[in-house]
Amino acid sequence: MNRDQLPPETPGEATGEVTGEVIEVGTGDVTGAVSDEVTGKVLDEGAARRYRTQVWGGAARSLWRPSVDGTVGGRLRELADWTDAADLADALPDTYGDGLVEVLERRVAEELGMEAAVFFPSGTMAQQVALRCWAGRTGSPVVALHPLAHPEVHEDDAFRTVSGLRTVHPTDAPRLPTAEEVRDHPEPFGTLMLELPLRDAGFVLPSWEELTATVEAARERDAVVHFDGARLWECPTHFGRPLAEIAGLADSVYVSFYKSLGGMSGAVLAGPEELVAEARVWLHRYGGLVFQQYPTALSALRGLETELPRLPSYAAHARVVAAALREALAEKDGPGWFRVHPEVPHTHQFQVWLPYEPDVLTAAALALTERTGACLFRRWFAPGAGGPPGTAVTEVTVAAEGLEWTAEDVRKAVRDFLALVEG
Q1: What are residue 168's DSSP bridge partners?
Q2: H helices present in 139-221, as ranges
Q3: Which of 60, 179, 220, 256 counts the highest number of beta carbons within 10 A?
């Protein structure tokens, strides 16, 4: 099961299977198991997951507060307060994609400099529809993309099973394909899909010059270009270009609302008027024309207003955090091997690799929060195919609360974390 298929770490109390009472748990077990301190019974994964979320969500200090932190009541009250402040409380609920959903679509089309946009309940659906539409227009069902791209890793082979598409890989290096790799690929393809940033390779981006050259190489082959821009919102700092200029390189762009902007869910496909009109037909056929979606639309609009302007500051501070992590991990008593990747983050997210089993590091991350109130890391995972054996990787995100962390705060948290791992 990959990371995107894991159940979200939702808030709640871990409860015993027999008594149903709240369990007081400890995390000293090096296997990472969470157990009842009274009975010694190991909690099932669902209860352990809820407990981890409860601890990390209640941390006094955190680099990031994901949207699954908090409670339903708290989240709804925050959204209602913002709705009042934005003078949207008297707006009418949507019906089958009108009203606030149309407001959101127009706002995103404007942000991306595209002619039109259409809202989808999920990014998986949005991209399948986009690439299916392009296949019909180019006459080719072949999509060139990276083997670590989201459709290849996290979508249960939906491209082939549902949409009848086939994929080819210009490169398997842990980066986006180069212009030469696109130009010289031996098989024909109708669409080049680029994930910006490439999440599973470490949230990596090419340089602006490399990106424009790669797009031009696809054009030379008469291929259209689609951006998987789930996290496109994060890219302007790295490229030094506004969103509309980045999106303008592509024929179509998909963006997500929960990955960078803290929304509930949902996505938008933006592009030419004719493509978007066709995509609306497929939206209905795929079952995505939902009766009412105004809470999701409101949370997306809130993210565009509150989070989007702050993302450059998050990306800048992620570089401070990454440098402090490297310094602390390199200290004499630290592990013999580690990796912060990229060394200078391209967005406000990056990877950390350490030479321990994932459960050991997850347990230490949980214990750090329980004992100090600081949430430095969360879940750790085994590396994918080709990763070094005996290692684990985690993803670090720096957002609003992370701006309060100084470099010394990070170094101290790393030292405390390693003491728990090694002790």
Answers
A1: 144
A2: 150-153, 158-161, 179-183, 208-220
A3: 256
In Å, the largest CA–CA distance within the chain is 68
What residues contact residue 72 under an 8 Å CB cut-off, 6+ apart? none
Per-10-residue mean pLDDT of the chain, 423 residues long, equals 40 28 36 47 74 90 88 91 93 93 97 98 96 96 96 90 94 96 97 97 97 98 97 96 98 96 95 98 95 95 96 97 96 74 96 94 96 96 79 96 96 95 86
User: How many residues are listed for the chain in this entry?
Assistant: 423
Is the previous residue joined to 7 through a cis bond, with omega within 30 degrees of 0?
no
> Residue 303, SS3?
helix
Please tell me the pTM assigned to this model.
0.88
Please tell me the distance from the alpha carbon of residue 376 to that of residue 357, in angstroms, as a whole number. Answer: 18
Q: Is 360 helix (H, G, I), strand (E, B) or coil?
A: helix
Q: Which pLDDT does position 332 carry in this prediction?
A: 57
Q: In Å, how far from its chain's centre is CA 21? A: 34
**What are 394's strand-pairing partners?**
352
pLDDT at 333: 53
Query: CA-CA distance, 145 to 169, in Å (whole number)?
Result: 5
**CB-based contact 393:380 (threshold 8 Å):** yes
pLDDT score for 159: 87
pLDDT given at position 313: 97
Question: Rounded to a whole number, what is the distance in angstroms from the first to the last CA of the chain?
Answer: 30
Residue 277: partners with Cβ closer than 8 Å, 6 or more residues away: 116
The region, left, alpha or beta by phi > 0 then psi within -120 to 50, assigned to residue 263 is beta
Please give the Cα distance from 334 to 81 (Å, whole number).
Answer: 45
For the chain, state the CA radius of gyration: 22
- Axis-axis angle for helices 294-306, 72-85 (nearest 10): 70
Task: Provide the CB-side half-sphere exposure for 33 (13 A, CA).
Answer: 10
State residue 53's pLDDT score: 87
